[in-house]
Every structure is written in C-alpha cells, then in structure tokens.
C-alpha cells in the first residue's frame, strides 16, 4: 500500500506486508513492467516484491537472493524477513496491455496481465518441447535460478514503492522488484532444449 504498513500480530509494528500467493515457494511469481528501451518496473501500481514472513527461503534462491540482500547495505533492515521466500521471480509487461474482451479491444494493466503473459511464454516453450518428443518443463523455479536466468533481459530501473518508503530497488541481476527480468523466448526455449540434451531449430513463425 501507499500508506504506512504494520504487522498483523497485535504488536502493530512497522513492517513490509508480503502478499500471498505470490510469496509461495511453489509458484513462479511474476511482477510487472512498462515501456521499452528501457523497460522499467511499473509505477502506476506496485510490481509487487518482497520476502515472505511465513515461507522460508527455498534452497534454489539462496545464492542469488542473499547476494541481493547484501547489496542493500542495511536498507530497510527490520522491515522485512531476510530469510523468507523472496519474490518476484520474473516480470512481464503489465501496463496498458491490449486484449480482446466482449468482442472489443480494451487496455488492461496489473500483474494480473503480466502473469498470464508469462504463462503463455512457458506454454509456448512446452509446446516446442512436446512437438520434439521431449518432456514439458514442469516446476521451473530450480531451473530458473540455476540456469535459465541467463536467458532473461535484466530490468534495472525502478523500485517497489509503498509503505512510505522507497521500497526495494531494481538492480543488476535478480532483485525484489523485477526478479530476473523479462523472458527472451528464443533463448529460453533453446535453454529448455539444451537442458534435455538437444537443440531447438524453431518451427512455425518463431
């Protein structure tokens, strides 16, 4: 929120309030971006980002997230749980997306637009894998943090404003505003093929 944030444990102490289900370690969390060249974290609404107070940091996040926390040099210490599951994992466009609704072309926004956009990208990757007789990706987070992050376009401008603070800043590499950035489909699908001992040669209009 844009106002002050307080704990819900009866003590009413100031702290960031992470959201659910995006902070769950068993989902791939998607934040939002806007613009191109450069693509930046959204400002019309919050991209979403932070650290869970309930779910501990999963093993697949340890090296990446701990490096980001260290780079903050104490920024917002005491307002968030450094050992919690961090999010988002990735981002996609979420500002004035164009869709067809009730036979009309309308503009929508929010991470509720970003999430299905990224889900569509993963569906296309799985389609390419299945067409080649390979297995679909399944739960991507461990692979994302160990290898696939290299196929993403880093977003380094913006912050997760709110709670009367500057929020978490975007940074080089993973950050708690834009995750690893936005997917580069050709690179991502090639990485998916290489992960199963093959190469993608493309088909259709890709």
Any overview of this molecule?
With 206 residues, the chain is an alpha+beta fold. It has one domain (30-193): 3-Layer(aba) Sandwich (Rossmann fold), CATH 3.40.50.200. Helices cover 23% and strands 17% of the residues. It has helices at residues 62-71, 111-131, 141-146, 185-194; strands spanning 30-34, 40-41, 50-56, 84-87, 90-93, 97-101, 104-108, 152-153, 182-183. The strands form four sheets. Strands 2-1-5 form a three-stranded mixed β-sheet, covered by helices on one side. Helix 2 crosses helix 4. 33% of the residues are buried. The model has no long low-confidence stretch (mean pLDDT 88).
Task: Outline the secondary-structure elements.
Elements: E1 30-34, E2 40-41, E3 50-56, H1 62-71, E4 84-87, E5 90-93, E6 97-101, E7 104-108, H2 111-131, H3 141-146, E8 152-153, E9 182-183, H4 185-194
Parallel strand pairs: 1-5
Antiparallel strand pairs: 1-2, 3-4, 6-7, 8-9
Helix pairs in contact: 2-4
Radius of gyration: 18 Å
Give a quick account of the main beta sheet: strands, pairing sense, barrel closure: 3 strands, mixed
What does the overall shape look like? globular
Class by alpha and beta content: alpha+beta
> How much β-strand is present in the residues?
15-25%
| Mean model confidence by pLDDT | 88
- Total E-strand runs: 9
Report the total helices.
4
Roughly how many Å apart are the termini? 40 Å
Per the CATH scheme, the topology name is: Rossmann fold
Helix and strand sequence: EEEHEEEEHHEEH
Give the low-pLDDT segments.
none
What is the CATH architecture term?
3-Layer(aba) Sandwich
Helix fraction bin: 10-25%
What strand order characterises the main sheet? 2-1-5
Count of separate structural domains: 1
- CATH class identity: Alpha Beta
CATH superfamily: Peptidase S8/S53 domain
């Amino acid at each position: 929120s844009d106002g002050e944030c307080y704990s819900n444990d009866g003590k009413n102490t100031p702290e960031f309030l992470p959201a659910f289900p995006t902070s769950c370690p068993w989902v791939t969390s998607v934040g939002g971006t806007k613009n191109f060249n450069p693509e930046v974290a959204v400002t019309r609404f919050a991209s979403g980002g932070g650290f869970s107070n309930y779910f501990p940091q999963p093993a697949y996040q340890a090296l990446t997230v701990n490096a980001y926390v260290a780079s903050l040099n104490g920024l917002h210490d005491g307002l968030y749980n450094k050992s919690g599951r961090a999010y988002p994992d990735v981002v996609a466009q979420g500002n004035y997306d164009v869709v067809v609704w009730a036979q009309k072309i309308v503009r929508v926004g929010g991470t509720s637009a970003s999430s299905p956009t990224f889900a569509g990208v993963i569906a296309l990757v799985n389609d390419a894998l299945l067409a080649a007789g390979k297995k679909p990706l399944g739960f991507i987070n461990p692979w994302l943090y160990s290898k696939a992050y290299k196929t993403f376009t880093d977003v380094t401008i913006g912050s997760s404003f709110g709670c009367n603070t500057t929020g978490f800043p975007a940074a080089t590499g993973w950050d708690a505003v834009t995750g690893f950035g936005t997917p580069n489909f050709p690179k991502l699908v090639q990485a998916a093929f290489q992960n199963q001992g093959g190469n993608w040669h493309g088909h259709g209009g890709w």
